[in-house]
Amino acid sequence: MADHTLSAEPTHSRWNRCLESRIEIASGDTVHMECVDSSGAQVRPETTVDEFLAIDRGKIHALTGPIAVRGAAPGDTLEIDVLEISHKGWGWSSVLPGLGFLKERFNEPFLFHWTLEETLTRSLFPAVVPLRPFCGVMGVAPAEDGEFRTRPPGAFGGNMDIRELCVGARLYLPVLSAGALFSAGDAHAAQGDGEVCINGIECPADVTLRFRLHRHRAISGPLIESAEAASPDAAADSWIVVESAADAVGAARAATSRMIDLLAAHWGFSPVHAYLLCSVAMKLRLSQVVNEPMFTVSAAMPKQVLPERNLF
């Protein structure tokens, strides 16, 4: 089990299974990654709104990677432990015409700069916002050939914007291409459910992840094992199933169905009993509503409801 260091540059802003990996690691290895902010280091603390409007949108997300995992093949599962995420003292949020959940109401460009203390920011007085950094984008290369923009999430993970992916969380992704080809970026110092204005607190960050490969253990989409609550109303220590679709209700149904299958497979519930348990104990939430045309729904079952299990 080795430690590796990976600089941000050269970043990439497209998913492509043909991208050459920047580093190859073994199962059990740890990678210390430098991540620029989601603009690709085009936004600085002194950037004006006019300068912001002129940035190259083709560089949005600016991911660090890809990381090849030796021996990874379709039908395997890649486990990613989030060990450390450190912001660098500043961040930004914006409003852009035509984007965001309330784009008809908020149609004037706006750029806000945040000064970040270690665990909170007081920049938006009188609010005091707690910081729980996470990567908005964590994913593997898709199964299909071609080049794909990073905005829509999918079964491969990607731009999920799930705030529970903070330090202590564990993410499981299906391996869809040889080597897995994992990349991450789009760090947020904080984010609310939905990411409604189109941004969290976008920031550069140093990220430390540990990777484990589970051979011949296939899953159909992202699964998260959260460690602690990212907000007072979130379920601490949960199993979280993630689904993304153009239809938010359809994504919610798919996430609920996958949770039922998970409960039946690993805890021995009959499907109908699992259905009842979801109805009385599961948290079903919109994690992002702005990466059109895709919406992301997470279904969380608190661990305190269930006997302890290791799924992998």
Describe the structure.
The chain is mainly beta and 312 residues long. It is built from three helices and 20 strands. It has helices at 49-53, 248-267, 271-281, and strands spanning 3-6, 14-15, 23-25, 30-35, 64-69, 77-87, 90-95, 110-115, 120-121, 129-130, 134-139, 148-149, 157-159, 170-174, 182-188, 205-214, 223-225, 238-245, 283-288, 295-302. A nine-stranded mixed sheet has the order 1-4-16-6-14-17-18-20-19. Strand 19 (283-288) and strand 20 form a beta hairpin. The longest helix is centred in the last third of the chain and has 20 residues, at 248-267. The chain is globular. The mean pLDDT is 94.
Record keyword descriptors for this entry.
single chain, 312 residues, mainly beta, 9-stranded mixed β-sheet, 5-stranded mixed β-sheet, 3 helices, 20 strands, 34% strand
Number of continuous helical runs = 3
Question: Strand sequence of the main sheet, in spatial order?
Answer: 1-4-16-6-14-17-18-20-19
Low-confidence stretches: none
Strand content: 25-35%
Mean pLDDT: 94
Tell me, what's the shape?
globular
> What separation lies between the terminal Cα atoms?
19 Å
The tally of beta strands, per DSSP, is 20
